[in-house]
Amino acid sequence: MVALRRTADRWSTCGWTGMSNYQVWDYIIVKREYGVRDSFINHVLEIVGDRGIGYLVANAAYLPFLDAYGPIGALSDKAEEVDAVLSELMRINVAGNIHLFHVFLPLLVKGEIKKVIAISTGLADLDLTNDCEIDIGALYASSKAALNVIVAKFNAQYKKDGVLFLAISPGLVDVGHYADATPEELQGMTGFVGKLVAYAPHFKGPISPEESVRHLRSTWEKASIEGGFGGAFVSHFGNKQWV
Question: What CATH number did the domain enclosing 173 receive?
């Protein structure tokens, strides 16, 4: 998702009719296929011209079901599956975002806001994992932890150019991933939620995508290099409170 300032009427000329109804008309959502980098960036340049872009939000990710509900020990007899899933996680969640950042950096440097937001996960937080014994999603969490390091490395190089790189967890969001879960899988999920309740007694369960986006947007709009957010990994609240 690439953000720039547009007027609602301009969306209709680009085939984005009705976007203003959802109050997201100042965003362009783009899809990059591997192997078509030049045509991809040229398409974006046709839209933004020399103005650059304000925000780059890296939201796409691979979320496997192999370890979504169980601990890492449950994978002990699934060596080939672990290798395949972890390889795909690193290809998409880590390498894919490295390529994405590289593609858009020239446009970000030209922009006024200069913010790169990587959507991470609270499962990648070591304190939460150890203190609350969060044992599910080990492979997915490891890929997001790697992404967090990549965000910090980009920050280390580009903060002198005024580009903010920030990893944010969206919270536990209800996006339908668990609709087809088996009773056994739901039991694992219930155990996870129970640990979150013990960690944060106010926690009432997964939030809606709309609520998550409101928090995310508030956090990334307030975040700045001067405020200490460069290369950081925070929750949707802008701190280390994960739910």
Answer: 3.40.50.720
Q: For residue 58, is it within any domain?
A: yes
Q: What is the pLDDT of residues 158-193, one digit of tens each?
A: 999 999 999 999 999 998 877 788 888 888 999 999
Q: Which string of DSSP letters, residue by residue, matches 133-187?
A: T--B-HHHHHHHHHHHHHHHHHHHHHGGGT-EEEEE---SB-SSTTTT--HHHHH
Residue of 154, 152, 153, 129 lying closest to 142 (CA atoms): 129
pTM: 0.85
204 a catalytic residue? no
CB 163, CB 229: distance < 8 Å: no
Nearest Cα to Cα of residue 225 among 176, 164, 168, 181: 164
DSSP state of 234: E
Which structural domain, as residue segments, surrounds residue 37?
A: 31-234
**Given the residues 140, 158, 160, 199, the one annotated as active site:** 140
End-to-end CA distance of the chain, in Å?
Answer: 24
Give the total number of structural domains in the chain: 1
- Is 17 among the domain residues? no
Helix (H, G, I), strand (E, B) or coil at 15: coil
Whether 140 is a known active-site residue: answer yes
Q: Determine which one of 55, 114, 115, 144 is catalytic.
A: 144
Beta-sheet pairing, 27-28 with 164-168: unpaired
CA–CA dist 95, 79 (Å, integer) = 22
